[in-house]
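Aim 2, interim progress. The first record below pairs a target sequence with its structure tokens.
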Amino acid sequence: MDLTVVGDVVLSAWPRRTVAEPVGPADSAFGLLRGGDLTIGNLEVPLTESGQRAEKLVTMRAPTSGAAELAAFGFDMVSLAMNHAMDYGAEGMRDTVRALDAAGVLHAGFGESLSEATRPRVVSVGEKTLAFFSFCSALPLGANATADRAGIGAIRVRQSFEFDSTFLDETPGTPPFVHSSAHEPDVRAATALIGEAKRRNDFVAVALHWGVPFCYLPTAQGPLAQYQQPLGRRLIDAGADLVIGHHPHCLHPAEFYERGLILYSTGNFVFDWCDGWSPDSMAAQEDAHPAPPYQPALLTGPWYESAVFRVQLGGADGPTLRLDPIELDTDSQPIMPRPEVAASILARFAEASRELDPSIVVDEDGLVRRTSKNHNVVEEA
């Protein structure tokens, strides 16, 4: 089964671009969505004109017409469990689901109850079936579904903070180290669902909204939060063939683990301007919110450099992976990259992935492979 996977997607059917028009002077990269058996992305915005705005620093929504645009560009399925899902409440997500259903775009991750929000979407390709889950660890308060509350599927994260008071005396202002671990009851529930889905289907893919956006990430921490690798591996151990990460808005490493593949962050694919989203949307509005303690420069280099991930499931040695690098233009639209940018994207992706597994090699054509066949050994960098 051939999957075409991309990261965060915001399509709002803005008036200065239609499906038939090129994005700009460069060649559009939307054509890369065609050709596989299934195209999967993360819908990073609710599609609604209704609902009540949540009390958050950044709330986003786009018109329900965005669902038809998703279908026109070739998306077959999207994940909905993400930190902006409930920006306009359960009613906003009900509008989203109705719009996606009308457009023929499959989805997972939202429901009227916990069981519905964590239910996989099963799709058939030929004689094979794929069970697709969507969970969120970047979780606003109250966004998770419960037995009697609509919301998104969640794997919550517990955090603690460590600091050395002696060191801070010498270097005041140094941030603490953040310890994090996935909430064990949520992990057990998710792994049980994945195991059951694997018994009933040929393949299982899990979309997971997790990790730390690059603009907030302490350099000393590395690209991954502490909870991510253990959680990703447990999902693979439970039966997932593929974990698709998003939320950091940049590319993070990939890891072949056992007979599965973990894409820690698939970056951005397209970010149309929408209600609540603009270059200054990360800055506090005086009439709505107090100023946050830090003002990240979000729209910088990592935001604009991304990839389309080609994943083949069902091989003798587990999943295979190839990257097609892309750039985002100044309007955050996907375009084919300049040769030097494409080479740089692949080189940085390879370097980061080798921090997790030194045997990983990324060829010039984007093929990601391992030089060692011992898939159980991951050396410390």
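The second target in this work package is listed in the same format:
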Amino acid sequence: MELYTYYRSTASYRVRIALGLKGLDFQAIPVNLLVPKGGANRQPQYLAINPQGRVPALRTDDGEVLVQSLAIVEYLDERYPQVPLLSRELATRAHERAVAAMIACDIHPLHNSSTQNLLREWGHEEAQLQVWIEHWISQGLAAVEQLIGDHGYCFGEQPGLADVFLIPQLYAAERFKVSLAAYPRILRVAALAAEHPAFRAAHPANQPDTPA
């Protein structure tokens, strides 16, 4: 498999974790989002792969190109079920999906680079952007804190879908200097993930396109 990725993209980070948890080999193909004139993701070569011009995109062993991290991770879980990312319990599966969707749909889009750039175009200063980012990340993580369990990872002793989405969001929170002190459950999960080889290998600091 080929993963079109960017080291600091939290959406790409999610898919790297899922691939690692399942022990799947893949070739990372870096897509530099910050090169001049709009980034490599806005060039025709990449738009032919993903018309939305975002990362990640995954080319499967069958040659199918998949986009959107939530869809990719669920595909991997269905295609390679031997290391499940979802609980066998129906209600727990819904909770896991809810946390993943909360992060992917409600938190991350409000602080990603395209949103920030548009706010700058509208005349907002960097201090205002920081307040905006802190507000949405803190509000979202406060809700996640109430939804996850009191032991182990988000919903059990083994990492699953919710953890795959939560850990990259915590990386973003730290990058934007958003305090996590009010979230003891989340910090518990973060400590466990920091010792897990799949999460460590997927970390932005360990990617081949990470700046020196």
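The radius of gyration is 17 Å. This observation will shape the mutagenesis plan for the next reporting period.
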